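Please fill in the sequence for the structure shown.

STRUCTURE ENCODING:
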């Protein structure tokens, strides 16, 4: 009998919390500072130093737990997890082993399936070892920065679903302002575990009642790697099963160069961390008032906000949902509509023109150097047709550079007052400059006309009406005209 051997995947995600300072000291929690410049006796673990828990870190973690519907432990405590590593100067990591911050809760995927959490807890990060040739350098800026660890139930069904889950989780944490989720800065890291489900009611056990062997893959720091490592591992396990080789639980790492996982250690070889209650931080209670105020200040969820946009502003729900993928784009939409922009025009413009302009200018939402009110003036001119889309694009680019709206408009040039641009002359000149495009178009290559219209638009300085140009080009399509 062939067993179905479906994969069952669980994820452990470490998220760096968006606090100003570290978890137990007042050193800055910041990426990219010179090595070992953000350290103090506490995060260096010097004798006599004492930890002070960071209230904001706790509140951010609670905010996430509330959003996922997890059950929050009223009594919180920390434990020491001992191990030796050069980037761990204290010789232990402060974590919440015995009583996690919260248990349960879930995240819903776009297809309606939910992935449940086993636990969420706070812990401090270690420093960073940088290997260069035979030398290793230690940077302790990261030592003691606050992490929220989220552990899912092993119910994810495929590597693709694991990647989708991480994408949605990251979006949610950014929406909640719990973390910037920036993987390049190491703000979101992931370990994955996978087993092949032998089927049956007790699918954490095989037919003999022995636990199903589980493979853990450590330190996957991009969503693509999570998917690739799981794909590789599932194929490897299936091959072993086909050959009748018994599978043992083990921990593996991802070898990026060779696109494969590699053995690290067998289960049972894991170090004994000698967990001990943290003596320097007494257990503490979370007041009901704190939870209540966090519940009240909870941001509207992306789904509810998209539904509201669609209902109140008459835009299609998929468009509203796309706007609500990031909290910032939803905020901008709302602010622009409030400043007088037409909702449907504004929604499309934000999703396309605005986003691509930010990308080209290499700025993120937080760094936009102008206010929605200024931007609404630009939108109004675009809507009225007093500014062509390409001139609008250049005004927006100048505003990102940054320039105030009026100056940006002056730089790009105001629409010519008085006589309209001479469209016939523009069309003639464009045909003269782009004979090959004209020829292609006349031979039936429909797209070639866009090169001609583009040329005429450039000649007009961006102020000609593309529709009127198209009509004139159409009239000239027959050779000899
Ligand atoms: Zn410190």
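FILLED IN BY: designer on duty
SEQUENCE:
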């Amino acid at each position: 009998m062939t067993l179905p051997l479906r994969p069952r995947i669980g994820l452990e995600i470490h998220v760096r919390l968006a606090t100003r300072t570290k978890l137990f000291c007042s050193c800055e929690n910041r990426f990219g500072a010179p090595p070992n410049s953000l350290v103090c006796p506490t995060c260096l673990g010097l004798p006599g130093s004492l930890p002070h828990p960071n209230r904001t870190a706790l509140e951010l973690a609670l905010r996430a737990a509330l959003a996922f519907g997890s059950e929050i432990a009223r009594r919180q405590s920390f434990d020491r997890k001992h191990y030796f590593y050069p980037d761990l100067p204290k010789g232990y990591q402060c974590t919440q082993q015995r009583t996690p911050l919260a248990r349960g809760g879930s995240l819903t995927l776009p297809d309606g399936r939910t992935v449940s959490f086993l636990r969420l807890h706070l812990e401090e990060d270690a420093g960073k070892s940088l290997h260069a040739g035979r030398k290793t350098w230690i940077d302790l800026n990261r030592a003691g920065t606050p992490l929220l660890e989220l552990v899912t139930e092993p119910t994810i069904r495929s590597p693709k679903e694991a990647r989708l889950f991480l994408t949605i989780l990251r979006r949610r944490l950014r929406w909640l302002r719990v973390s910037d989720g920036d993987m390049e800065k190491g703000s979101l890291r992931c370990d994955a575990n996978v087993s092949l489900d032998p089927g049956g009611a007790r699918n954490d056990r095989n037919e003999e009642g022995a636990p199903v062997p589980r493979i853990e893959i450590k330190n996957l720091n991009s969503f693509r790697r999570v998917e690739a490592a799981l794909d590789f591992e599932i194929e490897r396990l299936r091959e072993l099963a086909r050959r009748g080789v018994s599978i043992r639980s083990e921990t593996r790492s991802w070898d990026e160069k060779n696109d494969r996982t590699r053995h690290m250690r067998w289960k049972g070889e894991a170090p004994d961390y000698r967990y001990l209650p943290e003596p320097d931080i007494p257990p503490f209670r979370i007041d009901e008032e704190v939870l209540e105020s966090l519940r009240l200040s909870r941001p509207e969820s992306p789904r509810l906000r998209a539904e509201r946009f669609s209902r109140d502003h008459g835009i299609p729900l998929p468009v509203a949902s796309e706007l609500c993928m990031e909290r910032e784009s939803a905020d901008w939409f709302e602010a622009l509509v409030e400043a007088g922009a037409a909702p449907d025009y504004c929604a499309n413009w934000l999703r396309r023109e605005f986003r691509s302009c930010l990308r080209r200018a290499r700025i993120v939402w937080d760094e936009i150097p102008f206010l929605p009110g200024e931007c609404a003036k630009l939108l109004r001119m675009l809507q009225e047709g007093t500014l062509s889309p390409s001139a609008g694009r250049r005004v927006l680019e100048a505003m990102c550079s940054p320039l105030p709206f009026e100056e940006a408009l002056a730089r790009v040039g105001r629409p010519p007052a008085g006589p309209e641009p001479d469209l016939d002359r523009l069309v003639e000149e464009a045909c003269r400059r782009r004979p090959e495009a004209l020829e292609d178009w006349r031979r039936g290559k429909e797209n070639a006309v866009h090169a001609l219209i583009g040329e005429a638009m450039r000649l007009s300085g961006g102020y000609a009406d593309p529709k009127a140009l198209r009509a004139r080009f159409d009239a000239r399509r027959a050779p000899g005209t």
